[in-house]
Amino acid sequence: MNSSRNHTNHMHLAAFVTAGPGRPGGWRHPAADRNWLSASHYQHIGRVLEEGKFDLMFFADILSVPDRLGNSMDSQLRYGSLGSLRLDPTPILASIAAVTDHIGLAATVSTSYLEPFPVARSFATTDHISDGRAAWNVVTSFQDSEARNFGNDRHIDRDKRYERADEFLEVACKLWDSWEDDALVLDPDTPLFAEPGRVHHIDHEGEWFSVRGPLNVARPPQGYPVIIQAGASPKGRDFAARWSDVIFCSHASLESAREFYQDIKGRAERHGRRREDVKILPMATPVIGPTTEAAQRSADELADLVPPLAGLSTLAYHLDVDLSGLPLDEPLPDVDVPGVQGHYKEVVEMTRREGLTLRELGKRYGGRVEGTFVGTAAEVADGMERWFTEGACDGFTVGAVHTPGAFEDFARQVVPELQRRGVFRTEYEGRTLRDNLGLERPAAGAWRSRRHGV
């Protein structure tokens, strides 16, 4: 396969994990482990992914049981759709840190309903106890059902929630910087526990937050935990290009992925960052079989496990649009989308390309398996290598059609194929997540170049 990229740079792999049922049909699969309330479930996945030399695993999260389809939780709970059961991911990271040594550990935390001090403290703690493997998937949230769990009738509008997120990240970085790197002395003879002159108040006074500081946790091993974000709207893309170390996205074609890649890299450069400082990892959900035909049969069987309303309830949540009044046997019409713009672009492209009805779209969206990544291990590796070498990504965020089996198949079958081709590591390069992603450790005050695109 011809390569337009120097293969001394390998792709990066993240795993998309949920602390609960993930895909609407996946939990019904005969091989699925449904032991979501046990730490051992997630620890096993962490060990499998580390065996496969993944850079990181990140846990998606939401703060409500969605009710966007027909103003009811019925479809979410009945079909095990997105958000029907979702554990707090932060303590799960700690349990995985205890049984792994290298894989990065990311949790999703919203900037719209929480406060900077406890969030900064939590991620600094995770970074310390994991020896520098923590990452924060920054979300702004967008659902009124989430707002109602925090004393508000409606969610913050899009522009305001990015303004709040911008200041939230500034405060978090100030708190991580409130201890100088050498502030913790631990000299029992002097005695000197910490040097007082190297621990500072931050005295932040802004539009959204008033925080005195300092943090009561020493500066994290990575300086700042790795920042992950998924922004698809113009405002979201700009925010992601300024703040993110890793960008998670979803595309229905190589062409749309390539456009997004070039746009984000260009925005990062305009904000004074290097292109290689932002890793773009689109979603891939492979289905692997001993033959092409067997893999396609597995994909079809998985699709059969997805009731259309299960996929539509997830889509309604992502778009923040009630789809219950639309005809199921007609295509998705043009709609105003207050939710995730990237998912809307993806389903519009899929609908137009394949002529899908809303009913068919519900099954496809609930399954979301793209043909590029259905096949033998070699064929899946072919598709991934093509996206990587043709400038559509820096690697992938790998989803699992069911857990843990799909992750096991990928780590033990596709990863060796990628390694054989020289596009993926055979060993971890460093100790911290930043080391393995090829990212510099931020010096104190590095946040100043990110705030408002300065």
TrEMBL record:
Database matches in SUPFAM superfamilies: Bacterial luciferase-like
Positions bound to FMN: D61, T108, Y162, S233
GO function terms (MF aspect): monooxygenase activity; oxidoreductase activity, acting on paired donors, with incorporation or reduction of molecular oxygen
Keywords, alphabetical: Flavoprotein, FMN, Monooxygenase, Oxidoreductase
CDD domains to which the protein is assigned, alphabetical: Nitrilotriacetate_monoxgenase (cd01095)
Entries under NCBIfam families matching the protein: FMN_nitrolo (TIGR03860)
Family, per entry: Belongs to the NtaA/SnaA/DszA monooxygenase family.
Protein name stated in the entry: Dibenzothiophene desulfurization enzyme A
The organism of origin for this protein: Streptomyces malaysiensis
